[in-house]
From TrEMBL:
A Pfam family assignment: LicD
Domain LicD/FKTN/FKRP nucleotidyltransferase: from-to ranges: 21-238
Name of the protein this chain belongs to: LicD family protein
Organism: Enterocloster clostridioformis
InterPro entries recorded: LicD/FKTN/FKRP_NTP_transf, LPS_cholinephosphotransferase, NT_sf
Single GO biological process annotation from the record: glycoprotein metabolic process
Domain of life of the native organism: Bacteria
Length: 275
């Protein structure tokens, strides 16, 4: 199965999520590469194979504790001790993913859902807070890795951390989320996602850009975007309307996807990529 078919599976998960959010008055926005895809491609980035969403913490907490669907399941570190990632995934129970380099719960085709928390106003306090978060994110990454790739940055440091800090990824993911909640979303002027390591120092945005929601076309759907999506995307990607070099146009994930009976191998993910 090609990337487009994986994208179609993600869309079905997204439909179920969107319906649940609407029925329960939960606020969410497209995030990261998904929002970039909506603005630049009116859908998926052609080589992307997942969906990124973000929700204010209160909406996120409701979701992870109450979501139920016959076909789709939600996993989060707070509600499942066998899940080691610091943000939630809603996934298709009719497929299975075999991770290539991480020791993570076996789930299916998924969408990522990130909690949004507050940031301190000042730059110094922001940097102190973010380095605290980066420490726990590094512990999460080190604890769940089954093998490290030769080209990875700080490879020696990751290997040492894996040997010294022997707690589970779930433990460190919960610690990371507690640190992330130090600054309350509702009480802060700046907010953003803090449980991902990809754009940590660029996630801080004025809450004003999230105060209103606009709907943008995404494939055959209309999905919520922050009204200030241009500011948000420029923070993350710079000149986001320019395509990345050809060699960066591949999946960021490392996995194999199977149908539930494991009889059909669907796709092998890449080992890094750009927007």
């Amino acid at each position: 199965m090609e990337t487009k078919e994986i994208q179609n599976d993600c869309l079905e998960v997204l439909r179920a999520f969107d319906l649940y959010a609407k029925n329960n008055n939960l606020k969410y926005y497209m995030a990261g590469g998904t929002l970039l895809g909506a603005v630049r491609h009116q859908g998926f980035i052609p080589w992307d194979d997942d969906v990124d969403l973000m929700m204010p913490r209160k909406d996120y907490e409701f979701l992870i504790h109450h979501f139920h669907n016959d076909r789709y399941e939600i996993s989060s570190c707070e509600t499942d001790g066998t899940y080691h990632t610091p943000f939630a995934r809603v996934w298709d129970k009719q497929t299975r993913i075999e991770w290539k380099t991480v020791c993570e719960k076996e789930i299916g085709v998924f969408i990522d859902v990130f909690p949004m928390d507050g940031f301190p106003d000042g730059n110094i306090m922001t940097y102190v807070h973010l380095w605290h978060l980066k420490f726990y994110r590094a512990l999460v990454n080190s604890s769940i890795r089954e093998k490290f790739l030769p080209h990875e940055k700080y490879l020696w440091c990751k290997r040492i951390m894996k040997k010294v800090f022997r707690r589970s990824g779930n433990y460190y993911s919960q610690k990371l989320n507690r640190v992330a909640q130090k600054y309350d979303y509702d009480k802060c002027s700046y907010v953003g996602v803090k449980t991902t390591s990809l754009h940590l120092f660029r996630e801080k945005n004025s809450k004003e850009i999230f105060q209103k929601v606009i709907y943008l076309p995404f494939e055959d759907m209309e999905l919520p975007s922050p009204v200030g999506y241009d500011v948000y995307l420029k923070h993350l990607y710079g000149n986001y309307r320019v395509l990345p070099p050809e060699e960066q146009r591949h999946s960021e994930h490392e996995f194999v996807i199977y149908k539930i009976d494991r009889s059909t191998r669907l796709i092998v993910g890449g080992d890094g990529g750009g927007g």
